[in-house]
Amino acid sequence: MAQKFIEGRIVGRTDHTDSLFSLQFEAAIEPFVAGQFCRVGLELDTEKGREIVMRPYSLVNAAGERPYEIVLIKVAREAGGILTPALHEAKVGDSLYVAPRANGFFSMPEVPDAEVLWGLSTGTAIGPYLSFMKGTEAWKKFRKIVFVHAVRSAAELTYRDQIDAITKDHPEQFQYIPFVSREDFPGAIRGRIPNAIADGTLEARAGIELTADTAHCMLCGNPDMVADTTAVLESRGLRKHKRKEPGHITTEAYW
Ligand code: NAP
Question: Residue 3: what pLDDT?
Fold first, then answer.
């Protein structure tokens, strides 16, 4: 049977807000495809006793980039959080458990060619997009990439340094469009992704039409955003992508 987990070590952390944070770790995991997730966990006391609790987190890394990095939000214990409060308390030098093989289909090999890739994300789901936008394949596959990161408050617009580096590397091909829903922030659209598609705000900002002829949309993050955005896109004639039946919408819900 495949090994379920191996031991890794936390080598760094970044606190973006009091609950949003990134962990960097080293572990002997197998090569992965940009956009995939790996299971990470700790040994904890739970209702069932002492056990190893593992959850999937997308890797923020380009395929060859080290140390490994995940971005996550602490779900308070009172709100049912088990692993994330413990990971939030973890310190550099602490050990953690990692599944040796990453998984998932939210990656370039699974997505059909199109003229424009629309990457539509919320919160911590920025991870998989950074993973493949830091590589080379996506830039050969699409003429343009529009990346939308939608958050509640401006402090949650994470990884601006990496976004700036991608903008510098692909000035003609790349557009970053931040959304902040609960406060005004210069340069950001105030509101939610599906509304901004429905009323044309997103296309106006990008200066590109979002049509079934030209677009592939990758949706990742809050499951309600994924569902509501899928419905708006379907009303425009885009349909879900399946291996056997190519379409325009690839999704990954985050919880
Ligand atoms: P969030 O509530 O997911 O909000 C992120 C953005 O998505 C906000 O701009 C929000 O807009 C928007 N949004 C919410 N519902 C939407 C919909 N139906 N259509 C379009 N956009 C929508 O915020 P978060 O801070 O990333 O996560 C919040 C909570 O989600 C956490 O506290 C946690 O409980 C849970 N979470 C769980 C996990 C997990 O793995 N278990 C991971 C991440 C988050 P509004 O401000 O208008 O709502």
Answer: 73
How many whole angstroms from 75 Cα to the centroid of ligand 1?
A: 12
From 121, 122, 156, 182, mutation site for ligand 1 pocket: most ligand atoms within 8 A of C-beta: 122
User: Of 130, 159, 161, 146, nearest to 65 (Cα)?
Assistant: 130
Is the distance from CB of 20 to CB of 156 less than 8 angstroms? yes
pLDDT in tens, 137-174: 999 999 999 999 999 999 999 999 999 999 999 999 99
The pTM score is 0.96
| Residue-range domain boundaries for the chain | 6-98, 108-253
Q: Do domains 6-98 and 108-253 have the same CATH topology?
A: no
Rounded distance between C-alpha atoms, residue 62 and residue 95, angstroms: 23
In this structure, the residue with its CA closest to atom 25 of ligand 1 is 123
Going by pLDDT thresholds of 50, 70 and 90, the confidence category of residue 2 is low
CATH superfamily, with its number, for domain 6-98: Translation factors (2.40.30.10)
Whether the pLDDT of residue 108 is over 60: the answer is yes
Helix (H) or strand (E) holding 12: strand 6-15
> Domain 108-253: which topology?
Rossmann fold (3.40.50)
